[in-house]
Amino acid sequence: MRTLLRALAALAMTVPVVAAISPPAAQAIGPNLLPVTVSNNSGRGEAVHIYVIGVQLSSGRLGYVNQGGTFSPWTGGALPPAPAPDVSIPGAGNGGSTTINFPRGFSGRVYFSLGEKLKFFLTPDGLVQPAPWAGGDANANILFDWSEFTYNDAGLWLNSSQVDMFAVPHAVSVTGASGATKRTGDLVANGRDNIINTLRGTSGWANTVRTRSDGTVLRVLAPGKAAGAGLFSTTYLDSYIASAWNAYTSKTLTVVPFGDQPNLKYFGRTSGNVMRFTNSAGAQVAQFNRPSSSSVWGCDGDLPAPNDQVVGPISRTLCAALNRGTLGTIDTQPSLNAADFYKSNPTNVYGKAIHANMQDGKAYAFAFDDVGAFESLVHDGDPRRAGIHLTAFTGGGGPTNPQPTGVPVISSLNNKCIDVPSSNFVDSAPLQMWTCNNSGAQKWTFTGGTLQAGGKCMDVQAAGTANGTAIQLYTCNGTAAQQFVLSGAGDLVNPQANRCVDIKEVNPNDGARLHLWDCVGASNQKWRKG
Q1: How many C-alpha atoms does 433 have within 13 Å on its Cβ side?
Q2: Which of 53, 67, 191, 235 has the smallest count of CB within 10 Å of its CB?
């Protein structure tokens, strides 16, 4: 995912871009002001300062939001940049929380700093944001981080980004109208220390860890930012890129950029330093020069990603594959098996360490980490409240749910897996179909006539038996509503209803819901263990 607020000229803020999100026009839902609780369980004693900055979508005006959710545009600006007014919101101390509000129709960042207020500046073009990887940045010695969001008529998107750096451990959450909460971004126990120690202990990466004179580790810089600051090799990934690129001089790379369009494919072959892509009719549709390490870290430069339906999606897929180290060895992309990631030599140690220390394995460690849905993002089309959770710097963590065991349950309709949305193992979570990704949300254990994931059971809502009754996740309770039999013919039957688990409306896409229906032998009722 591209960071939501891109720099212009001397890091001046421009209109945010929400990558991979093209929300349709929709009737406004969700409150005009969405309450967002910023909770502080960091274990640290410093004062917390919060900032909500971004763009008003209806007008395109850049500005900030106060605690009550009122938008104000920036005014002034000069060259050299002039100090911006103090628009900080006081945050709670350790163990407390503060509620802020997002106005609908706003996109931007929530910054949070510990101990010292951030320093923002204004130019005639916009806001100069903190950039501690740049020489002379006024915020280089401040401990801070941010989350990114868009709240509009199609709902809320909120992520915990590590695209530029990893600094303050934090998770994000959203609660919808049904009361179900999705949360992501939580570290495992001692996850921050694990990440820092991994980078410090890996040859060539130690200087990406930035420490203040008082011994506080402020942040770990992403490889592209560190290389730009002279702290990391500018050619680190070049040898792997060359090997992966050259692999397709003698074989074909197949790119399937849209999970809901499995028959839309592009075919890449390399000649010299250029990889050219053709469509199924044999017409050339895109070409890319062999990228530099910088282009791979930033998903830009030689890997341009315009907002179109061909070049951009192919470029996104290539960038994700190169960051994850799967290009050259896995010839259909994107690869969706996380067990195959970060095995190249050299590899993206930063991305590997961050994903490895997330409870659900999800993070935004590079710009297009959302390819295959491996990003730390929550979304709800009908939100009622949200949260940004500052979590423990040391200790804490530990898996929220049992370690994933079991096997995927795969549909014959689309080869996708039965999935617990956002790995959120709460009662009444509606089960869905999703591209198979080897996560715990797709690992089912067949035991005692039940199917269990995350310690809870597949369940027929309200013990219903009628066609159309939803299939959900619920605390195991030994009732007939949680009994399922996978027959030799591939039917997944609830004996109480004598009906099959069915993909609603024969929907082949990610997010398709499950319900009971008369067994008719159709592909949307056929299942197999992975």
Answers
A1: 26
A2: 235
- How far apart, in whole angstroms, are the C-alpha atoms of residue 66 and residue 407? 47
Query: Does a cis peptide bond (omega within 30 degrees of 0) precede residue 508?
Result: no
Q: Does domain 238-345 have CATH number 3.30.920.50?
A: yes
Contact (CB, 8 A) for 50 and 89: yes
Residue 482 to residues 121, 178, 230, 404, 407, Cα–Cα distance (Å) = 58, 21, 58, 20, 18
164 is catalytic: yes
CATH 3.60.15.10 fits 37-235+352-390, yes or no: no
**The tokens of 464 are what?**
């219903």
> Has this prediction a pTM greater than 0.85?
no
Q: 340: which residues sit within 8 A by CB, 6+ positions away?
A: 324, 326, 330
Per residue in 244-279, pLDDT (tens digit) is 999 999 999 999 999 888 899 999 999 999 999 999
Is a pLDDT exceeding 90 seen at residue 398? no
Task: Say whether pLDDT at 400 is over 80.
Answer: no
Chosen CATH of 409-529 out of 2.80.10.50, 2.160.20.80, 3.40.630.10, 3.40.50.720: 2.80.10.50
Angle at 366 between CA 292 and CA 206, to 5 degrees: 80
Question: What distance in Å separates the CA atoms of residue 120 and residue 505, rounded to the nearest whole number?
Answer: 51
Tokens of 112: 């949070």
- DSSP string covering 215-269: S-EEEEE-HHHHHHTTSS-TTTTHHHHHHHHHGGGSS-EEE---TT-TT--EEEE
Backbone angles phi, psi at 291, to 5 degrees: -80, 155
Tell me which of 46, 125, 153, 164 is the catalytic residue: 164
* Cβ-based neighbour number of residue 345 at 10 Å: 8
Catalytic residue among 86, 145, 148, 427: 148
Q: Which two tokens stand for residue 164?
A: 């530029």
Helix (H) or strand (E) segment spanning residue 322: helix 311-324
CA geometry: angle 247, 250, 254, nearest 5 deg: 70
* Burial status of residue 168 (CB atoms within 10 A of its CB: 0-12, 13-18, 19 or more): buried
In this structure, are residues 390 and 372 in contact, taking their beta carbons and an 8 Å threshold?
no
- Within 10 A of 403 (CB to CB), how many other CB atoms are there? 7
Report the chain's mean pLDDT, rounded to a whole number: 91
Share of the chain above pLDDT 90, in %: 81
Q: What is the pLDDT of residues 213-250, one digit of tens each?
A: 999 999 999 999 999 999 999 999 999 999 999 999 99
Residues forming CATH 2.80.10.50 domain(s) in the chain:
409-529
Cis upstream peptide for 291 (omega within 30°)? no
* Average confidence (pLDDT) over 99-128: 96
